Amino acid sequence: MQWGHIKTLFILSFLILDIYLLVQFVQKQEEADNGILDNRELSFEEQLKAENITIPKLETGGIEKESYISVSQRLLTKEDVEPLMAKQGVSTEVIDNYFLVSQLEDPIPITESASKDNISELVESYLLFPEQYMYWGWNKDLNVLIFFQEIKDRPVYFNQNAVALAFLNESNEITHLTQTMLGEPEPQGELQTLIPPLQSIKALYSRSYLNADEEVTGDVVLGYYARLLTEGNQVIAPTWKVTVNEERNYFVNAIEGLASPANEIEFLHSTITSDEKKIAALDSESEVKHSFLEVINKLEIDNRSETE
């Protein structure tokens, strides 16, 4: 009888021990599983959320295929420039058949509250082929309005050969304009799959152009951009434009994924300095020449400004 009690105690002891070991095993397995989940690589969207980086709703449609584009400066014919040359109230000079500079007899006032559409409407009658240009913005440092040419309905960003500039006086009135234009584009190379908009944002994040607590503002827009500008024929790439905090613009090559920052003031300094040299070569009797050079002198743009 006593032996039976002892045997029962042994059985119960081993049963309790087995249950304890089973519980310990299950707990350690759960901890191991949780550790794997904690240590797994976060998705890019999770990384953005963890760093409080906000992005807009992005298009998730079919991924496009495009190629690089080869394009040259458009040479303007007499027929091209005739409408502008014949326009009353504006004096226009054509330099080397591709560069236009115009002076308005009656300056056009631009209000601080003017919309993009309103500004475009005010300027379009003083541009050649205005339907091919889109208003980019108003650089208040130099008091210049910027218009980019569009190719295939997409803007060509910061290209000296595809831009119109409207110069404002101290009263925010347009007094002069300059304009250049690219010709017909030709495909360069084979069609390639473009990276999606989210991948362009990831390219900025990887290069620390996008950091914690920042926001991608506005739409991620596809256009064209050339990292290196050359005279004559040039190759431009399909490019995503990404804006951070409504103030910093970046361009991401939509084929290679290479990211680079935009420098608007540097672009304007370089473009206006180049334009000044062209206009200085005009005949000494040109009224447009003297009035425009006065405008440039007020901007105080010279070779020193590029090295400061």
Task: Kindly describe this structure.
By secondary structure, this protein is an alpha+beta fold. The chain has eight helices and 13 strands. Among the domains are: 95 residues, Lipocalin; 109 residues, TATA-Binding Protein (2-Layer Sandwich). It is 34% helix and 30% strand. Strands 2, 3, 4, 5, 6, 7 and 8 form a seven-stranded antiparallel beta sheet that branches. Strands 1, 9, 10, 11, 12 and 13 form a six-stranded antiparallel beta sheet that branches. The protein is elongated, with a radius of gyration of 31 Å. The C terminus is likely disordered. It comes from Oceanobacillus zhaokaii. InterPro entries: YycI-like.
Order of helices and strands: HHEHEEHEEEEEEHEEEEHHH
CATH class of the domain at 74-182, named Alpha Beta
Give the CA-based shape: elongated
The low-confidence runs, each spanning 5 or more residues with pLDDT under 50, are: 302-308
Number of strands: 13
What CATH architecture label of the domain at 74-182 applies?
Answer: 2-Layer Sandwich
The average pLDDT score comes to 87
Structural class: alpha+beta
Radius of gyration, in Å, reads 31 Å
Observed structural traits:
13 strands; TATA-Binding Protein; single chain; 308 residues; Lipocalin; 34% helix; 8 helices; seven-stranded antiparallel beta sheet; alpha+beta
Draw up the topology in text.
Elements: H1 2-39, H2 44-50, E1 65-71, H3 78-85, E2 90-95, E3 99-109, H4 116-123, E4 133-139, E5 144-151, E6 154-155, E7 163-168, E8 173-179, E9 186-193, H5 197-206, E10 216-225, E11 234-244, E12 248-253, E13 259-261, H6 264-280, H7 287-299, H8 303-307
Antiparallel strand pairs: 1-9, 1-11, 2-3, 3-8, 4-5, 5-6, 5-7, 7-8, 10-11, 11-12, 12-13
Pfam families: YycI
GO cellular component, one term: membrane
Protein name: Regulatory protein YycH-like domain-containing protein
